[in-house]
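tool=predict chain=A
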Amino acid sequence: MDQGAVVNIAQEALKIVIYVSAPMLLISLIVGLAISIFQATTQIQEQTLTFVPKILAVIVAIAVFGSWMLRVLIEYTQGIFTNINQFIK
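tool=predict ok
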């Protein structure tokens, strides 16, 4: 297994991680921004106010996108296992 193959596998793994985590991160970002705007308009400066809505939004995102995320990860893992003979040469 040469360095190019290792770099290729690492790049693909990082792309998959970004691709899978993007929905949760974007939803968390949007909810955080909405809470920040709400806090700025009402002048409520409670730091813990953002945690509960973000956690709930991420849980909902996992419930909605969970099957898709699992399918993407399984396809990547199956691709690695299918091509393992090419990697170990």
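The CA atoms of residues 10 and 44 lie 44 Å apart. The helical segments are 3-42, 51-82, 84-87.
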